[in-house]
Amino acid sequence: GSLTGNLKEIDDLLHKFWGPIFRQYANITAPCPTAFKQKYGRYIPRAEPMTRQALTPTALAETLKRASSSSSVGVDGWSYGDLKLLPQELLLRLCELFELIEETGTWPSAIAQGLISAVPKDGGGLDAAHIRPITVMSCVYRLWAATRTRELTAWQGTWITGAVASYRPCYGCEDVWWTVALQIEHSILADLPLVGASLDFAKAFDKLPMEV
Known about the structure:
Strands 1-2 form a two-stranded antiparallel sheet. The chain has helices at residues 2-22, 33-40, 57-66, 80-84, 88-104, 109-112, 139-156, 173-189; strands at residues 115-120, 131-136. It is built from 8 helices and 2 strands; from the N terminus they run ααααααββαα. By secondary structure, it is mostly helical.
């Protein structure tokens, strides 16, 4: 009765707000990656292809050691606490599964499903425009992703510009804060003109064409 009506109202609100964002290229031509590369390709760093190492139980165990056992659980019901209890033999079987998935590009449906959690933004309301949809994937998938990400960030470090401070080992927001703070302090002490700009793309990742 009332519960069904409330869920339908919430569903309608989410579709009304997020539908145009997720389906903005339903009736128009999506941006062409080839045209983008032709125009801006000279600014894209050249890098050697990433070499994928074979996954090992030791690598998975290292990832699990860093993972929080209280982290959210996906639809398959596996938690990081469960995975931390697996012996080396079963971690080896997981490695074999991950290698097969990488070779075929296909994930088992039980692992590929995600739960969407609507998280309110800081200072925002509870309407669709002020919530952030977070997808909670299986801990099994996240174990693979976190392990491969360590390789990815190491490879990225061989070519990425020093101006980028996010998602890099030994770098963080504080590196940006301190740099800007020192520049501001220098401008004030030296009585130099001071100006700044902040740019943000609303729903940037949600607006990327799926083909990209």
